[in-house]
Protein 1
Amino acid sequence: MQFKTNPKNTSTSALRIIPVFEENSEETLREKLGFQGLSSVLFSGKKDSSYSLALEKNLILLIGLGKTPEYKAIENSFRRILSKNPELVEKEVLIDFSDSFSGEQVEAALVGFQLGSYSIGFYKKEKAKEYSKLKVEVITTLGKAKSLVERAGKIAAAKMEALKLVDLPPNKITPEYLGDWAKSLGKKAKLDVKVFDSKKAKSEGLDAFLAVGRGSAKDPKFIILEYRHPKAKFHLGLVGKGVTFDTGGLNVKTQGMHHMKSDMGGAAAVLATTQLVAEMELPINLTAIVPAVENAVDKDAYLPSEVIGSHAGLSIEVIDTDAEGRLILADGLSYLVKNYKTDQIIDLATLTGSSIGTFGFECAALFSNDGNLSHGLQQAGEEVGEKSWPLPLWDNYGREMDSEIADIKNYHGKPFAGAITAAKFLQAFTHEHPAWAHLDIAGVAFGDGEFSKTKTGTAYGVSLLLRYIENQL
């Protein structure tokens, strides 16, 4: 898309979009359309409402946002335009904001509008409508409008990258693909990138990570991205679970396996956030680690009851090979703590069905040993519509992971507290880092939604991490 900004409407666009808040709908319509003749029965600015009409040379689309819309609600309202009404759009669009819009609300609208161009029909013979040449004129009296538009474009691009990484099939999104993706980003942005193959990972002691990938013909990749800024006063570490496909291993999944391309939703969020931080040149230091593997079944697959090593030096009894995400995260967390002096660490993972049993598809399960970090993530998520809610890390839950034969076991094998015991397992590999948070995003990274007929990625974590980081600056 090609954006430009204007303080006034000077265009004869084929489509003019006017977003309207319910509390001042009459005032906005009078200001923008020059008349009061539109009945409130037809349109009053209520949330999720819309109304189209022809006026002189313009086709007008009114978008109702309700009384006090959240960031995510505005984003979704604007995503619907291109996603559900492509026939309204030809060569040019004008988005006409009233003076009542804040910069954050304009950002949410522009991000959502661009997300509407995303389609999962990657392999269809008949492709979805293409919007790369669409001209978009943004009408706003806000200062620094150009930088606001540029910022929204970077956020939308990062979120679409996260969507694509989850939605593309596992024969495309392999560990090697993610490694190459990171290397490509490193060439475009100010990033140092390292990608360990299995031989290098072995020399680094990443034994738990390697055990998970043993059954796959696809070589695992341990991906490290380092972003440094000369004015940084804060060093954040991110770890994202990158299981590009999860059969469950020898504890093979009995249902829903065709959705397991989504088991790298944490990796997608971490990679896309790293892209965004680098493109925006945020004044922080960031180290991101993505252990990328495929959990498959063959003669070399790791076994239930096997005892494996780990980067932290702890032996692990494998109770369930379908509890594989925590094994690769264990090595990712340990490697990060041992090799980098980070102020805080956040990991994101589609880790447990237990988190879905607790929160459904409404929010992520949040665990942290630091109250400020936990509160900061919660607050940031509330601000952008990517919610999380804390669960405890009490020591009694950790005892559930005691093993008779090894230092720790990877699954307690009981039908309760699955998300909590998984978090306690991860904590054992953080080397007592004082500020660590774990986000179990199993219920929010991939699911049913209004923009597709099938389950798709959500890009959960990208807006949350961006807002959290910027709140620290």
Protein 2
Amino acid sequence: MTYRTSRRTARTLLTTAVVTAGLIAGNATAHAEDDPRVEEIRQAIAALKPLVQQPPCDQVPEPERWLDAGTPDKGSSNVVISAHRGANTLAPENTLKSYEYAFAYGVDLVEVDVQQTKDGRFVALHDSTVDRTTNGTGNITDLTYQQVRALNAADYEPWKGGEYDPAQIASLEEILALAKRVGAGVELDVKGSVTEEGELAELVGRYGLIEESIWNSADPRVFQAEPGARTIYNRDSWEPNYLLYEIGQVSKVYGSRLDEYTPESIVAAHDSCGIVMPHAYDAGGDQEVAQFELAREMGADGVQTNQPALVVAAAGEAVDSRLRVRRAKGGHSSEVCLVNADNGLGFPGKTVRLTKGWKKQLDLVTADGGCATVPAVNWRGSRVTFAGDGAVHASRTKLH
């Protein structure tokens, strides 16, 4: 996701002048005040602010800590986790299955790349063309909804030929319905194909997800349709910290790369009653946990991640699980499924153990939907156990 002042003006309407330059003394501030981008943002937010409904903020600002934070802030006790394009290492990105797996791990939000088709429908796709991730070609704006939905969204590595091939590009309605069912939100990364942002906001509102969700857009039509919509401001390294505080008058969520942040900038965001959730994935997949831990040390409230299971474990927020038995005709056990105990969504790639008597044991690895097939031998009466891991608590059942 990118949300910077260099993009179109509608995406930079994010601040108002509520703090005078006198709050922050020194040459650095004077120099920053001369930066024309400061005034650009301030003028833009002046146009946006009358449209935005923000909850009251009772935080007392500490502008001296915007220069030297001392001990960093402590981020939210409930870590805010957004799954980038769903759980995109477990299933093809922006497919319904990737969002189901992300919500299985109890994340607060799933990030959705919103595109608009030729006939005005909203779908989840990152690129402006369908070439990279499907078996089709062409711009999303030249294809109808039905044409997009007919494509195979798993026609790329590492998914091609695997258990999720074929897959379907998810519609936004499917994702919103899923989020509503599990009581979570969506982070809407609104792409350039979207021309009807007001209609998009109304759609999210019909699912009752305005308060739970975040918009990576500041198009005025979003707020005209839904004044309570929350925007995410993706920080750049140039903004002085007092400006981040001012931005909080209309945007209560701060994103972008972790290396754009310092403990001081996080203090300024918190002083405006904002939450900070930078990317954990920019340094590469093997660094996500380290990036998450660094963000928390700096005072961040959460992160956006490609690997929700790892971050949930690192956050100490493991979810409860349940083992469910599916029966074939005739009453014989045929599948065991490891699912989230609260929302019923499955965990793939987990080992469950069947034990019968003292010596007979069999380990199965869950796959699509968190399920594993029981071999066609008599395992009736077996104990089924999942030992648990950092992200998912242990559970057990019995094959009757």
Protein 3
Amino acid sequence: MIEGHCDPAFEAVRTAFADGFARGEEFGAAVAVYVGDRCVVDLWGGVADRRSDRPWLRDTPCLAFSCTKAVTATAALLLAERGLYDLDAPVTSWWPEFGAAGKDGATAEHLLSHQVGLPALSRDVPVAEAHDPAAMAALLAAQEPEWKPGTSHGYHALTYGWLAGEIVRRCSGRTVGEFVRDEIAGPLGLDLHLGAPDDVIERAARLSAGRKTDKGGAARKGGPSATGEVPRPLSPEDPLAKMTAGFRDPNSLLNRTFGNPDINRLPGGNNNPEMLRAGWPALGMVTTARALAGFYRDLLAGRIVGRTTLRDAVVRRVAGPDRVMYIDSSFGLGFMRPSLVFLTPRAGWDSAFGHTGLGGSISLGDIEKGLALAYIPNRMGDEVSGGVRAYRLLEAAYACL
């Protein structure tokens, strides 16, 4: 079932990857690991489409959800490095309309680190309208923030792309997808798309929901875990309990952040070719694991932005309770840093950066160890962010170093 290449020194990664299929946790997936410029793991397996049993092949791309945000942020950082705007200057210096409703003190750093206070849209937005980055930017520019920019942080699940993307659009005259194609993915030969062409959509994996199964294939039905352990009740003040309550409340900031625009109103949801072509800059990237790991390989090597720019970008700007997700999160300039929403082994706590994606995908670079890893599944997990499947692969990769 598992195909591809794995250096013998990284056999633990192959084992962890295969175990996910054996547990019934995967339909199809791919994982890739670089150490420096050397590809030590490039594995794939399972089915790309459960309806037809189309197999996952070497060049099967898949929607990587919020792993997109790190690529969008990198495009913005590249333009700052070129001197086209100042990260510390007011956003109004290059986007005058953004100063409305008390946001005149916001900076690009606030935009890139989830501090600007615009995690949720103020009105229901149809999916078709969200395909227009200029319209979405204008809507957000006029909107009152949930908190004064720079005073707190909360995950901007969808709006991040239109906010950080406006840096790219105004400073380069191109959408994020066009800029990434012309300046990053194209020159580096990466099969990575924000706005996938039809030939990429045709070979892309189809996302599927699915319940976890035990080793014998029987679906778990709640209650005690497979180990017989009964989960302890959570206090109402526990951040995980607050997150659960937030998802149950249709008017919570959490639901308003994640649920508008409501992609589920579109036939097929994120599998709809309309969404894959749109390339929303917060969650619309279609890529292979090999290409996404290659993106971090090239970031670490200084081929996209300079090493000084990257080191500054991964400095923690915020850390602690997230205003949207309740549990602790931590961000640099566009990159997640290790926290409860970006779990890494202890060996990566000080030097890892990257981004997780809805349903279980993850992308990571380690600025000290030269490690680059990407994992993309098509079986949607229950995770808002990276989950246990991704963590097992990270744990194995770090152990192999």
Protein 4
Amino acid sequence: MKTYDWIVVGAGLVGSAFGYELANAGFSVLLLDRSLQSPNATRYSYGGVAYWSGNTPLLRQLCDESQAIYQTLTAELDYDIQYRELDLLLTVDADRDPAAIAPNYEDFLIPPTQLDPAAAADIEPLLNQGAIAAAFHAKHGNVVPRALAQGYQTAMQRQGGILAIATVNGFEHSGNSIQGVQTDQGTFHGANVLICVGGLSRSLLHQTGISAKVYFTQAELIETPPIDGLNLQSIVMPAELDRMGMEAEATQPDKEPLWDEPGHEVAPAVLDVGALQYRDGIVRMGQTSRVLTNPQAPLDAAASEAQIRAGVGKVLPALQHVPGTWASCLVAFSGDRLPLVGALPNRDGLHLCTGFNGPFLLAPPLARHFAKFHQGEPTDVLAQLAPDRFSHT
């Protein structure tokens, strides 16, 4: 019976990055996922690397580390992750005062520059100048999401890690000590289990009697086939994300009991209009976010698609009627917009890694910190992200 040093559950970006770094540090690693084609947050992400956005000492440190890692990551993984740098335009609605929004960005590592509509349209000709009062401009890293996950997976396998398809439905344990996972393919044994299943983390842990303050939205978007003749030159997003307010409302203490009951909508849905075009011509645009406590809640795809198209069409008219397919995925978040990374209390050998706001920015440096920590190297980063931090508030 083989016992792995680490069983990593979830082969999206986060699980793949952590699996690679652990294998690279010399640990035996088993990376599990129910499917390598899952409609997960990695599959439908924009792949943005906002290395300019750190507004606390911790986030500034991770931004600097992330930017440095990406400069050499293609060579390190020996895989084309298609990293590039793009212009980011954070649009301000026409009825909003940019001066009221600008202070929100003053403390960032690299504060964005405010542009008037004409200057913003010089950067992105597809913008409808009449729909915006201004835009904030920054240089923004970008990677093809699935390419990065695959790059980590292949590099992990070169280091001796194993990638396998299996659905985890429980944990093997002795008392409070976790000793592996139970799956539809049998039981796998490990000294440590790391849960990296994003929006499914809460329900997976809850069904085995483990509580963690991680939450999730249903994120809805439209993905197009490659579009000839359309050239969206920048990433366009709103300067004010309604999703942030929705998440804050959904994590209030009085809402906590609702999260373990199916059938609740914890806060009203929001639409944050944004779009990105990859080098191959594919466009992703959206997104509507809903906080529904049932991860499998049915959604009205047609109504959602119409709403997204109408919203995007106001800012980027050329995109409103392009061919595309509606899609959705679960996106995990925490109560303070920082990920939960580390050991779960009262469960020896069980670790959690989820709730990333900006996984493509944060996962690469945090995976490296995590692996080095478990090699015995000290770090003050992970203590600030411990899953039990909310029990002290």
